[in-house]
Structures are given as structure tokens and as C-alpha cells.
């Protein structure tokens, strides 16, 4: 699609200083400093920076709604992009597991997901990026992960540890193990034996992880840790080059991240729900304390804009600050200096909202329409 040459008139535009009624011009995929092209009257609407989703796995339901149901993952990726655009997201990081859990979280599926992403990336308007979520206990897969990162050009990797260590250390059968094993077509006893072996080798993980992280950092890969629970754990992650703290579980971990200059990401669904479904620290509280750099969709794309408005409506911060947590903040975290705000010269990544309902009426990614509906579409068509 050809980029728009257009001037959007009379809308309320969100700048770093707040909302102001003004005209906004788009030329050659960028925000222009002078009027250009056809004028479109958007009075009664709000124009805000396009949303940058720094971590989301809501795409899983499009790629494989049921086991084996989706053979062409590229089609699921196109459906994902349509949902992203309908929610005002102009840049999205798709977070894919590489885990001992297997199935849709196994390495084979991860390879298929990244191949599908590469296949469709150039044909959609939303800027799609990949994140690999790697289970650090998989010592025998470290070289395979490096190869996957290189083959698919993955620039962002987060280390996870979701092993049920408490049960395994006590020699107990972890809750839900049988169902988990059967879902991926593995004998439950073999699955238990496998994860018990991973648990037993955890003393080897630290040194191996340091070497792997160092090699990935040399390649320019951004590294993060997931679910930090203690200040010491966050310091250890930082020492290994993991300067992004995804969803810290406690206040002390978030405070340590901020004190150490790390980026802190929290889940927008946590904020919309009013708290973590696992009983972890509240995202609202961390935002109020100035400890959060970015909100992520996690598993629910609509939660991003809802979270921003909840923060503003609740007086936690003003709208420009709240929206920055889903636009300029994540853009900085990803090193994307050409987006995240409405300013001449930056990418024309914009979302048009109806103020009363906060419904997305149009999404523009690098000056190209990725989504449009209702009366706003009629005005654009003219």
C-alpha cells in the first residue's frame, strides 16, 4: 500500500505535553512539519502515537486454535496482524516459547512460528518483531538456541525458569504433569523423568548461562529475565547482561531493577484486572512509584490502551505519561528511536480513537492504513 499524503484536521492530538487540538500532516511515511495532501476532518476524534507492544503471546490462538488445526502458520500470522491493528498496535513483539513443555512451546513449533513471521513480515503494515522465551534449564539446547537466533534474526531473548522446582526437589509429582504430558503426546512417566533430570542439573546452569548470554550480547541480542522474585536474582541477571526485567514478581525486584538502570516491563492485563492473577506485586502500584518503563499486552492485546486510560482516569498519572508506557517507553526499550511519539520526522505510527468509547477507529503504521472502521473510515474515503 502506498503511504498516505494527507493532513488530519481538527482532532485532539496527544503530544508529550498533553492533548491539543491541531492539524497533523503525514508525508512519505513520516509526520510532516507542514500541511500536505488532502485534508481529512477528524474533529471529535483523538489521535495518539501508535502502540508499541513489547511482549505478547496472544497470537497463539490464531496459529493453533486447537492442536494440529492450523497447518499454514502464515495464515494465522496474518490473522494476528489484523487483531494487532484493530487494537491500535503499530509495532508488536511476538513472544514465542522454547521450552521443555513441548507442543506449542517446544523448539519445533518455535522454528515454524519464526519462519511464518519471516514469510509475512514484508506483506503486512504492522511492524512485527520476534522474541524468544528460552527455558534456561535446557542445557543441551544452548547451541540450538544460538543457531535459531542467527537463522531467524531474533534480536530479543528472555530467559525463563518455569520448572516446578519445589515439587521436584521433594520428589513429588508436580501438579498437572499428566495432563501436560498427554497434551504434547509424551508418556507422563517419561516426561517426569525428563524434567527431573533438568532439575537435577540446575547447578550447571549458572556458568553455562553466563557463557551463552555473553555470546548473545556480542551478537547485539537484547536480553531479559522473566519473573524476577528477589533483588539478588535481579542483580545476578543484570551481571549476565539481562538488562530487561519482565514482569518482576515483587517490589524489591522492581526497585533493584530501577536502581540498577534496567528496564522494567509489567503486564497490562495485571493493571486492568486490578492485580496479578498469581498474587504478585500490583502493576498499578509499581507505575505509581515510577518503577515501570513499559506495559505489555502479555496475553490480551486490548488491555494495552485500556490500561493507559485506567491510569489516567484514576489519577495515577496524566494521559501523556500513561500512553508513554505503551508507546515511547517500549520503543526506547527496543532501541526504536524513530517512533513512540507524535513529532515531525518520526514514523507516522498513529491510532485514531473515539473519545467517548476509547474504541480504535483507525490505525496508521508508517503512513499506511492497517485498520479503519465506522465514521472515521467514511471521512478518510471522503
Give the SSE layout.
Layout: E1 6-15, E2 18-27, E3 30-32, E4 38-41, E5 46-49, E6 51-56, H1 60-63, H2 73-86, E7 89-98, H3 107-120, E8 127-135, H4 142-152, E9 156-160, H5 165-169, H6 177-183, H7 188-200, H8 202-218, E10 222-226, H9 231-239, E11 244-246, H10 251-259, E12 263-267, H11 268-273, H12 283-288, E13 294-296, H13 303-313, H14 319-324, H15 328-333, E14 350-353, E15 360-365, E16 368-372, H16 374-381
Parallel strand pairs: 1-4, 1-5, 6-7, 7-8, 8-9, 9-10, 10-11, 11-12, 12-13
Antiparallel strand pairs: 1-2, 2-3, 5-14, 14-15, 15-16
Helix pairs in contact: 2-3, 6-7, 9-10
Structural key phrases:
382 residues; alpha/beta; eight-stranded mixed sheet; eight-stranded parallel sheet; 38% helix; 24% strand; globular
Plain-language structure description:
By secondary structure, the protein is an alpha/beta fold. The chain contains 16 helices and 16 strands. The protein has helices spanning 60-63, 73-86, 107-120, 142-152, 165-169, 177-183, 188-200, 202-218, 231-239, 251-259, 268-273, 283-288, 303-313, 319-324, 328-333, 374-381; strands spanning 6-15, 18-27, 30-32, 38-41, 46-49, 51-56, 89-98, 127-135, 156-160, 222-226, 244-246, 263-267, 294-296, 350-353, 360-365, 368-372. Strands 1, 2, 3, 4, 5, 14, 15 and 16 form an 8-stranded mixed β-sheet that branches. Strands 6-7-8-9-10-11-12-13 form an 8-stranded parallel β-sheet. Helix 2 crosses helix 3 (107-120). The chain starts with 5 loop residues before the first strand and ends with a helix.
